[in-house]
Amino acid sequence: MITVVGMDGAPLSRRAEAALAAATLVAGARRHLTVAPPRARTVVLGELGPALDALAAHEGDAVVLASGDPGFFGIVRALRERDLKFTVLPAVSSVAMAFARAGLTWDDAAVVSAHGRDPRPALNVCRAHPKVAVLTGPGCGPAEIGAALAGWDRRLVVAEHLGREEEQLSECSPAEAAQRTWEDPNVVLVLGVASAQAHPSWMWVWCCSLNTKPTSMGVRGDGSADAGGFQGYPGAVGWALPEEAFDSRDAVMTKAEVRALALARLAPGPGLLVWDVGAGSGSVAVECARFGAAVIAVERDALRCERVRANAARHGADVRIVPGEAPGALAGLPDPDAVFVGGGGTAVIEAVAARRPARIVVALAAVERTGPAHAALSAAGYATDGALVQAARLAPLPGDVHRLAATNPVFLLWGTAGRAPARETDAASPAGAGPNAARPSGLAGPGAETLLARGTTPRPPQCLPKPGMPPGPTAGEGGRRRGAPP
Question: To which CATH superfamily is domain 235-435 assigned?
Fold first, then answer.
């Protein structure tokens, strides 16, 4: 019989002590094995494979000592994959403990793991969601997370050595976190300015809703008193919102029919980063953010930047706005997973393609620009397709009848990454500091199957886990094993 015992610094329960007393094999991190009975054989959990083999071959009682809740980004998944029979005695998870120490609720928080896997999806959730707990890992600790959040309005709460005498809680800006050295193990809470907004209170909100936007606790969107909740914008249910849902007085508006196809080709979602280049009113940027993606809107006109900001606030969307003209304004931004190009010509398309996003969508109103844009995508190694989007909408006439009113036709081209273009050298892209430069191809953790189905960024594995480090969770929660002795 295998018993998995969670440890959070509190005294073990009677059931856990009894399981340990009867065990002839105990597996766990070196710091946990101090509670193992002297007569038991011990296995230090570093790489999971040998420990799982030992547990599978063992004929007597065994105990696995894990950090926090072993079913939360922990060893329970690995044990089930090996079809081993076990009982779990969980402790308080490090995420719950970190929020408790900070005095914050976490039923409206997203929880991501950057331990032993590509950190980019976790970082993109931090960029998109106002309250995120990160289980850290080698190469993606508080300093790297802080560096990756440059340009986003966030605060970090770093919880070090939770449940131990040397436990410490620190609140700082991303820039301050990037300059400090932190103790392992730790958990990072990433908080945005909207982290205090109300939520439905009857469900765990993982990411922003497509149908509603949050209102401040105590005030409805119309200013009347309320206990807090969600307010839907009229006509904002679903996606490809009507033009009336955006203020476009100073900017070109991407029509709803065009936006619908563009969103289908961009495939925004949690864990992904989308650029909207030549954002105009920001309608595409806002809709991508409503799908849970992290979004950067690049716009050269100052008035239009304010319009994007207002439209994002109107829909409760977190959009980072970068004033400036592409392609120059793209330098230093973190690498995207998908890009919408609303203007700038072939120079912008080439600059975007050089960053190797999985998907590029280009909107063109002029016929003459279609050929060069198609050629630029193809030359960059993208499988290219497109469509002319031309809609005719019902318009009322006297007598309770209607006519068809045509909208301006728009060419949409889209490229899906395939072969990389031939080049003499492969210069590093200006992806920003820390883990933004890491571009492994694998994904793991919650939502990975969805991300893979949508098509993840086809970047070469330049930053894989170190030899001997497991490709996924270890004994306990992802961040609790960071830096543990082998």
Answer: Vaccinia Virus protein VP39 (3.40.50.150)
Q: Count the helices and strands in the chain (H runs, E runs).
A: 13, 21
- The helix or strand, by DSSP H or E, that contains position 158, with its residue range, turns out to be strand 154-160
DSSP string, 42-95: EEE-SSHHHHHHHHHH--S-EEEEEES-TTSSSHHHHHHHTT--EEEE----HH
- CA pair distance 19, 62, nearest whole angstrom: 8
Which two three-digit tokens encode residue 42?
A: 């011990």
259 contacts 281 by C-beta, under 8 angstroms: no
**What's the pTM value of the predicted model, to 2 decimals?**
0.80
Helix (H, G, I), strand (E, B) or coil at 452: helix
Residue 105 CA, chain-centre distance (Å), reads: 20
Structure tokens at 311: 């439209």
Distance between CA 9 and CA 320 in Å, rounded? 40
Q: What are residue 395's DSSP bridge partners?
A: 403
Q: What are the residue boundaries of the structural domains of the chain, listed by start?
A: 2-92, 235-435
C-alpha 471/C-alpha 480 separation (Å) is 15
Per the CB < 8 A criterion, the answer to whether 82 and 74 are in contact is: no
Domain 2-92: assigned CATH number: 3.40.1010.10
| C-beta atoms surrounding 313 within 10 Å | 14
Task: Say if residue 210 is exposed, middle or buried (CB neighbours under 10 Å; 0-12, 13-18, 19+).
Answer: middle
Q: What is the 3-state secondary structure (H, E, C) of 97-151?
A: HHHHHHCCCCCCCEEEECCCCCCHHHHHHHHHCCEEEEECECCECHHHHHHHCCC
Across the chain, which has 486 residues, the per-10-residue mean pLDDT values are 96 97 96 94 91 96 96 95 97 97 94 93 96 94 98 97 95 97 96 65 59 36 33 57 87 88 97 97 96 96 95 93 97 97 94 98 95 97 96 94 94 86 41 36 32 34 34 45 35
* SS3 category, 303: helix
377 sits in which H/E element: helix 370-379
Query: Cα–Cα distance between 480 and 82 in angstroms, integer?
Result: 22
Q: Please tell me the number of Cα atoms within 13 Å of 463 on its side-chain side.
A: 18
Q: Are 148 and 439 in contact, with CB atoms under 8 Å apart? A: no
